[in-house]
C-alpha cells in the first residue's frame, strides 16, 4: 500500500558509512529527510543537504541519503555529522518498504509519520521547507507528552539504601546491549552507545522484598494506567551511571531482538537523588526529561524510543526490571534459544 501523508513510516536497518547496522527509527525526535537515490545521484542529493548546515543539525532535522543498488563509490561516501548520513540499500529492501522509486525524497515528522513525498526535482524546495517548520518538540501544535506512568513511593528510603549497598558489595560490571545477528541475539559491548555498570542481585531476601513491593505498590498502578496486568519480572538488576565515565544510554527500544520481543513494559526506579543529568527522555514525544524521585518509578512500553541522558555529577543508582504477562512468557520460552551464550 502506498504511503500517504500522516501514515507511520516503515522501520528498517541498513549499513552506513561508520556502522554496520544503523536502525533508522532510532533517529526519531527531529524532522527527517530521506532520499532514495541511485549511486550516480548520491552526491547531488548530499549537496542539497550540505548547503543547509543550520537546518540539518541533528536538532531541527537530519538527512539520510539511501543509496539503492550497487554503489562502487561506497568507500568514498562521507557523512557530515551533525546532519547527514549515507545508508546503503544494496537489495532495495528499504526502498521496497516505502514503495519508493530511486528518485524519491521523503519528509518525516519527529514521531515518524510521513509529511510529504516528492521527486528529486523538488528536493531543494523540501529542504528549504524544513527550516520553517515548528520546533520538533511541538511539531503537532502542542508540547509532546510521553505516554509514561510516573508514580512515587514504590520503595521506601531504607530499601533503596539496601539495594545500593548490595550493588557496592557485589561490584558492578560493564553493561552491554542486545543486537540481532541473523537468527541469533547477542549481548555486545558498545561503549559509544551505552556506558553503565550493572549488578544482578543474588540476595534471596532482597529479591523477595522486590517482588512484594512491586506486586503491592506498582502492579495496581500499571493495571490502572495501561490496562495490563504484569505477572512476570525479568532481571533483578541494579544499575549505576556515573559522572566519571559520563554514563548514558543512547536512544533505543527494549524489544527489537528475537530474544527480547516478549518484553512489554520497562520499569525505572531511582534509588538516590544526589546527581545531575541521568534523566529519561523519549525523543518521539519531545525533549522533556523525566526523573522519578528516590523510590519512585517511571514505567513505559518497551516499544517506545527512550534514552538515559549523561550523568554530569555524582552517580545515579536505579532498579531496572522488565515486566510481562503469561502470554509474553510463552513467547520468551519459544525464543530463548535465540540468545547466544555469553562468553566467559
TrEMBL record:
Keywords: Dioxygenase, Iron, Metal-binding, Oxidoreductase, Vitamin C. Signal peptide: none annotated. The keyword Methyltransferase does not apply. It comes from the Bacteria. Transmembrane segments: none annotated. Residues 232-326 form the Fe2OG dioxygenase domain. Gene3D superfamilies: Glutaredoxin, q2cbj1_9rhob like domain. Its cofactor is L-ascorbate. InterPro entries: Oxoglu/Fe-dep_dioxygenase_dom, Pro_4_hyd_alph, Pro_4_hyd_alph_FE2OG_OXY, Thioredoxin-like_sf. The keyword Iron applies. SMART domains: P4Hc (SM00702). PROSITE patterns: FE2OG_OXY. This is 2OG-Fe(II) oxygenase. The lineage of its organism: Bacteria, Pseudomonadati, Pseudomonadota, Alphaproteobacteria, Caulobacterales.
Amino acid at each position: 500500500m502506498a504511503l500517504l501523508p500522516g501514515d507511520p513510516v516503515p522501520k528498517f536497518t541498513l549499513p552506513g558509512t561508520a556502522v554496520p547496522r544503523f536502525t533508522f527509527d532510532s533517529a526519531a525526535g527531529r524532522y527527517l529527510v530521506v532520499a532514495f537515490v541511485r549511486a550516480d545521484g548520491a552526491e547531488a542529493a548530499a549537496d542539497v543537504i550540505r548547503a543547509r548546515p543550520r537546518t540539518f543539525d541533528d536538532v531541527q532535522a537530519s538527512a539520510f541519503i539511501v543509496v539503492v543498488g550497487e554503489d562502487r563509490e561506497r568507500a568514498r561516501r562521507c557523512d557530515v555529522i551533525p546532519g547527514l548520513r549515507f545508508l546503503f540499500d544494496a537489495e532495495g529492501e528499504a526502498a521496497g518498504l516505502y514503495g519508493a522509486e530511486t528518485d524519491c525524497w521523503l519528509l518525516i515528522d519527529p514521531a515518524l509519520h510521513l509529511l510529504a513525498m516528492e521527486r528529486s526535482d523538488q528536493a531543494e524546495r523540501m529542504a528549504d521547507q524544513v527550516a520553517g517548520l515548528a520546533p520538533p518538540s511541538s511539531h503537532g501544535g502542542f508540547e509532546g507528552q510521553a505516554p509514561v506512568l510516573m508514580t512515587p513511593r514504590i520503595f521506601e528510603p531504607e530499601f533503596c539504601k539496601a539495594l545500593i549497598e548490595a550493588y557496592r558489595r557485589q561490584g558492578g560490571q560493564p553493561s552491554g546491549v542486545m543486537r540481532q545477528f541473523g537468527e541469533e541475539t547477542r549481548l555486545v559491548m558498545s561503549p559509544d552507545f551505552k556506558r553503565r555498570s550493572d549488578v544482578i542481585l543474588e540476595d534471596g531476601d532482597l529479591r523477595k522484598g522486590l517482588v512484594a513491593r512491586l506486586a503491592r505498590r506498582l502492579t495496581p498502578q500499571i493495571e490502572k494506567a495501561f490496562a495490563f496486568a504484569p505477572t512476570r519480572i525479568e532481571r533483578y538488576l541494579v544499575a549505576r551511571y556515573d559522572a566519571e565515565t559520563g554514563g548514558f544510554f543512547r536512544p533505543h527500544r527494549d524489544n527489537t531482538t528475537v530474544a527480547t520481543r516478549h518484553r512489554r513494559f520497562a520499569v525505572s526506579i531511582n534509588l538516590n537523588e544526589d546527581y545531575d543529568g541521568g534523566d529519561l527522555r523519549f525523543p518521539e514525544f519531545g525533549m522533556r526529561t523525566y526523573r522519578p524521585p528516590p523510590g519512585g518509578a517511571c514505567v513505559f512500553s518497551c516499544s517506545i524510543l527512550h534514552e538515559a541522558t549523561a550523568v554530569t555529577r555524582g552517580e545515579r543508582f536505579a532498579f531496572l526490571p522488565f515486566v510481562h504477562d503469561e502470554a509474553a512468557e510463552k513467547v520468551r520460552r519459544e525464543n530463548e534459544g535465540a540468545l547466544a551464550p555469553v562468553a566467559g
